[in-house]
Amino acid sequence: MKTIVKRSEIIExxxxxxxxxKDQIVIKLKDLYDEEGKNPLIVSLEExxxxxxxxxxxxxxxxxxxxxxxxxxxxxxTTGKKHINWDIDDSKYDNTETFEGFFDTRDNxxxxxxxxxxxxxxxxxxxxxxLINMCFNIDYDIVKxxxxxxxxxxxxxxxxxxxxxxxxxxxxxxxxxxxxxxSLHRKNIPVSRVITNRFSSSISFNMxxxxxxxxxxxxxxxxxxxxxxxxDLITIEMIHNNPNYTIxxxxxxxxxxxxxxxxxxxxxxxxxxxxYYKNIxxxxxxxxxxxxxxxxxxxxxDICKRYNTKLTHKTGKLYYIHPxxxxxxxxxxxxxxxxx
Length: 340
Hints:
alpha+beta
């Protein structure tokens, strides 16, 4: 239950956190917000209480069980009693003079009002990088022993196909499915939808995005009742009907299925540069930008790479929409040729 208190009350609790009492204090802070609606994660960062921040995002014990109370990638601000004072501008599209990078492929990004976004705007390189490492290095040996529902639900994203980097899996995928999605990601298998709660979990695929070999795997899973047709998707679903299920037990159940899939070529995120140019032209018309009447292929490439600096050459007229795709494709090619 959300409770609005004076910031000084939150600060006092944060200042008193130590190794002996952190479990009790983190639980006390779990549902507290200051007058502006900022939760203890944001308060600890604004007050430069970084040791307290570390305690907040790590597992603690409650009633004899481990749990996680705060997720740095979630929205950390709610409605408060005062107008929020927030001077972070997370807009990536503010270059209205040259439009350079105007259509850069977005990495999946956290809410403007997340603790992680706040960290990205900290000017001190050492502090910023240290805090980023904290966010990505939660003790998974403890996490995997936690029961379902003992962690905050992740804020929903809508397009799982646009998870380009492994770090984004930690940001957006619930703990029980992180290892499974990471395994699929490394096999270049796109996931269309992921759902997890304390009662069930599921991973959905679009058959058109899979190799023939992996399509055969899904069809066999359907035949034996481990997957089902779900509108235009194929879904692997598990019901969590045991209250003692742990994150590790769910992960192991999925792992046995995921291991059946084989690495495949990348099927999502590769574009034809000429088709992409037509899209760029259409969008830029709204901003009164004039482009060459009869551009050469060199002109087209230069223009597209100017407006989207994350385009990365693949071969011929094909480009990766995000540079992380090229890294994955290179790894796949090396493995395919038995060079790694």
